[in-house]
Amino acid sequence: MLTKRIIPCLDVRAGRVVKGVNFEGVRDVSSPVALAKYYSDAGADELVFYDITASFEERALFTDILTETAKSVFIPLTVGGGINTVADFDRVLKCGADKVSVNSGAIRNPDLIYDAAKRYGSQCVVLSADVKRVNGVYRVFAKGGRENTGLDALEWLRRGEENGAGEIVLNSIDTDGVKRGFDLEMLAAVCEIVHIPVIASGGAGRAQDFITLFQTLPKVDAGLAASIFHFGEVKIKDLKLLMKENGVPVRI
Amino acid sequence: MIAVVDYGVGNLFSLVCSLRYIGAEAVVTREAAALRQADRIILPGVGAFGDAEKKLRETGLRETVLAEAGAGKPLLGICLGMQLLFDKSYEFGEHKGLGLIPGAVRPLTDIVPPEYKIPQMGWNALRFPHGKHPLFKYINEGDFVYFVHSYYAAGCDDFVIADTDYGAPVTAAAAKGNVMGCQFHPEKSGAVGLAILRAFCETEEFKC
Predict the structure, then answer these.
(1) B17 near A CB under 8 A
(2) Contact B190 A75 (CB under 8 A)
(3) Total-model pTM
(4) Rounded (10°) angle between helices A86-94 and A56-70
(5) How far is residue A31's CA from residue A69's CA, in Å, rounded to a whole number?
(6) Residue B67 sits in which domain range?
(7) If you write DSSP's letter for every residue of B53-82 in order, what string do you get?
């Protein structure tokens, strides 16, 4: 039986790890390479490097850091942020990424998922969506959660699977940064309509939130979080022991 | 020296990094001479079987791999590279494999219950149905490795050295003499995966 994956997300800017709270405000935490190694040793099942680069120079710094990480961390690495073309896929895959996550890039260019899946295989295409309730409907937001695209999230994700996405990261803007648990209602709706792995993101505030997530929604494959891990509020080792105690399949 | 066969299928960066990390000398090559000179050969691969088999043939390395394996050189296939070791595959048609291990590659949907997601993507535990193979000398039954696959090796029960439970027993690794293959990705399976690569790189009894 596959274990439920715990995935720390490292937001990287100018070669350093940062974490936005509700996508605003940025705090410098640590070196990405050191942090990646630390998480891998602690039992993280996968890592996401999210590139929040603002300039060409920073982008080069990002790929350097990715390469450095891939030399000493041997768990799956996913890269997101600034992925707009198949050439962007190529750039990060060559530097050591195993999967690439697309968000706004897929909204701007609806062929991106199909083209990338065809070239590199579905297993390496992750569709990440920032979703928020607007008048009772799940809407996809672009540009780091700032712009309502008007797209119906369920339809968008279903189409993403059809076009070849191999995995979905569902980030609920409604619960992100609030730290009162994952958006179970939104996740349940998405799990109903897709057949590929779903990674829950946004809202984890304590270890129990992951237990609730996996026990309530057995179809969810993984839980992703950033600040609670970076600030040591939840230690991955402790979290995994708690998952085991609660009968959640886990790799220890 | 470990030769990693570069036949234009998949990303070899992580694999080479992991080999260097454990102190093995590794070279990525598409030269037959380099495969002949190497002590051991790794056949990687991701993607579709038919396409990979064709590329291996077109590079001319198919015959070299077969000759070296036939001469007793340790050969490790990884993921699609493992599947290529078998007689044939039914991925999008029927394709001939290297025929180094008896068996055929079939869709997971043949055996896995419908509620299981395809591909199998994530960490699953290894079981050793016929005892511990030397490839696993540094790890234990129950250790977790990272899988990403939609097809599996079937009809090779006598050669299965590890399987995993995905609603049905799924071949995780197979071996016949000096030829062995892992369906999972040792280069992405943390310390357990590195320990498997280390065993492959240093075990003398694989040579025959």
Answers:
(1) yes
(2) yes
(3) 0.94
(4) 40
(5) 10
(6) 2-206
(7) HHHHHHTTHHHHHHHHHHTT--EEEETHHH
Question: Which of B186, B180, B87 is CA-nearest to residue B133?
Answer: B180
For residue B22 the two structure tokens come to 């454990």
Query: Residue A122 carries which DSSP code?
Result: G
Choosing among A1, A2, A66, A94, which should be mutated to test the B contact, i.e. which has the most B CBs within 10 A?
A2
Q: In terms of DSSP H, where are the helices of A53-99?
A: 56-70, 86-94
Q: How many other C-beta atoms can be found within 10 angstroms of the C-beta atom of residue A140?
A: 23
String of DSSP letters for B151-200: EEEES-GGGEEEEEESSSEEEEEEEETTEEEESS-GGGSHHHHHHHHHHH
d(CA B121, CA B124): 9
Q: Do A74 and B14 touch (CB under 8 A)?
A: yes
Per-residue confidence band for A227, with pLDDT thresholds at 50, 70 and 90: confident
Q: Give the mutation candidate from B17, B18, B124 for the A interface (greatest A CB count, under 10 A).
A: B17
pLDDT above 80: residue B28: yes
Structure tokens at A118: 């065809």
* Nearest chain A Cα distance for residue B16, angstroms: 9
User: Reduced to 3 states, what is the DSSP secondary structure of residue B118?
Assistant: coil
Closest among A177, A195, A196, A176 to A186, alpha carbons compared: A176
Ordered domains of chain A (ranges, CATH): 5-245 (3.20.20.70)
Domain count, chain B: 1
C-beta separation of A244 from A250 below 8 A? yes
ipTM above 0.85, yes or no: yes
Q: Do A76 and B194 touch (CB under 8 A)?
A: no
CATH value at residue B12: 3.40.50.880
